[in-house]
Amino acid sequence: MGIETTIAEHMERRHVLAWGVADLTAARDYLAGVSEGYVVDLPRAISIAVPFPREIVDLLAEGPSRTYLYFYRQVNNRLNHIALEIDSILSGEGYRSFPVPASRREGRERIGSIFPHRLAANLAGIGWIGKSGLLIHPDVGPRLRLVTILTDAPLETSSPVEDRCGSCTVCIEACPGGAIGERVDCEDWQGNRLDAAMCDRYLTEVRDRHGVRVCGLCLAACPWGKR
Ligand code: SF4
Ligand code: SF4
What is the average per-residue pLDDT within 43-58? Predict the structure, then answer.
């Protein structure tokens, strides 16, 4: 059985929402600027999306939710578990493989991940990066989470997904931190749409007021993936 078939069958067993393979060649210079050096010398990325429970995301519209935070961690654990399994499959076949942990804050200063999962997901054909900076899937919108495995395995790659936000401004209006704008003039793949520092400041305010560091109104408000 070929490596592609083995991986496809594994994804099916794990009930992932979507997965694909990104060719990172065109993004090499961008990645060198935003990633840890040791993750940018592998040519492809397997991107995996799992859905976030819809009803739990709906809770965010009512205010900061500890239940959301609980499942955020659980879904990340699930993604990391799947990434480790794929890493074992690739390594067992003699390929290089680097599982990038599902996004979480890296230390006090760093806000993002060591590698932009949403860029890999976009290039792998899973969805587009919305004005909110979130990866938007045509079925579930931004109600998903991502993980990435970098590899040199010669897997067939997909085409990037075109932006379908159009004239929508729902997440811009929903953002209480003023962190989202029509910043589409930037040449990078994330489009510099989200001001992560402003989002982070707002989250700190929420934590000081409510004792829980959660917002996610951009996630709950996006019309893609809503019932
Ligand atoms: S999490 Fe909240 S503050 Fe941050 S971008 Fe989304 S809506 Fe804005
Ligand atoms: S709310 Fe609208 S503009 Fe924002 S990401 Fe979703 S579709 Fe795009």
Answer: 96
